Fold:
Amino acid sequence: MMKLRLNTSVEIKGSLQDVPVPSVVRIPLQKKHKSVVKKKQIVGRGQVIAENPSKSAYNIGFVHSSIDGMVEEVLPDAIVIGPIPAPKEGEAAPVPARPEPCAEMDTLANEELSRKLLELGVDTSRFHATRTLIINGLNPEPGVVVSEQLVKDAQETLKAGLQVLERALKPGTVKLVVASGKQISLHGCTTVNSSDVYPATIDPVVVHAATGAERPDNVDIISIAELYLVGRVAETKLPLTETVVSVGEKVFLVPAGMPVQDLLDAAGVPHGTDQKITLGGPMRGVALYDLSTGVPKACTAVTMVPEGLFPPVQPNPCINCGECVLVCPARIQPGMLSRYAEFNMFDEAGSRHVGACLECGMCTFVCPANRPVMQYLLLAKAQLAAKDDMVSTCRLQD
Ligand code: SF4
Ligand code: SF4
Structure:
């Protein structure tokens, strides 16, 4: 049943491609975002539609419209923007307001530059003024080829992104981690070779490969795809309204919020009821139940998973075989933790380090009982986080 190849490197043949501008976008919001537009408002491409009220320079970025259009719906988790209706007879057509390029981009530095990047839509939540910046140049998951595509096609944009990050974060060292045997470099980076076999490609494992330390202080890590998006902002000086998405063997530059159905049509990828479609890769992606879902800025793949590649997970009993322990890169005990979560024993899961789970999905992948092992762990983590939130809210109110 385990037919998935876990090596992530591939030979890239095609080029980074554009897609037609969609007529409707459904731009995802996170909990912290506060919408600043109303239904029926005309918006221009690049106009702010939701802000992050945080004063911190290191947080999730503002959200901008990725097309010229009219706000059709403002939902808790998304803003839907559709075509501008034709003007009534005798009325002038509304002109969507697009922002001017940000002239300050070339002069700002340090925290001020990070704050500006956040306002321009870059997620800076994982950045800090840092001693070591690591660029994860490995493809994130099997079948997700964004990193190699961008290294092949977008050297100038990656360079522009790196220059901006160097001004914002002032790292002492910048390391680029690439698959062993690959001749890849980026100007100003020390190249480090690492395994490309999943889960060696996920950030915490890459940090270990690059520094020799687990969870070291003063280290930031960014993927090639994230660096490319910073580079787009640096080159255009305009808000970030797009993302790069791998679909099958092709990689596309996609307006944020483009419906998955439109992206699959533009990619010419046939898909039917014998496939599951996930936002993200086959190991960590989230299965979609609605193809009108908009592609989020943080998404690097839309994956078609053929029916039968994986057996459906079930709440079957754990047979205590230990397979999940053998593959877990966090060296925790997924089987036992999944049983704690299954029986609502979340505190016990917390005390046995469920928080150390890297969310790689390997435990679910190998479990012979087909248990949703990682999903149980995610449940425990969410429950513990909600409890922490409740405790801090109580303290504030006291
Ligand atoms: S998802 Fe499973 S295998 Fe991966 S780190 Fe978490 S517990 Fe370990
Ligand atoms: S692999 Fe599955 S059955 Fe085996 S110990 Fe882990 S959770 Fe239990």
Observations:
- The radius of gyration is 22 Å.
- Residues 327-330, 332, 334, 357-363, 373-374, 377 surround iron/sulfur cluster (ligand 1) (CB under 6 Å).
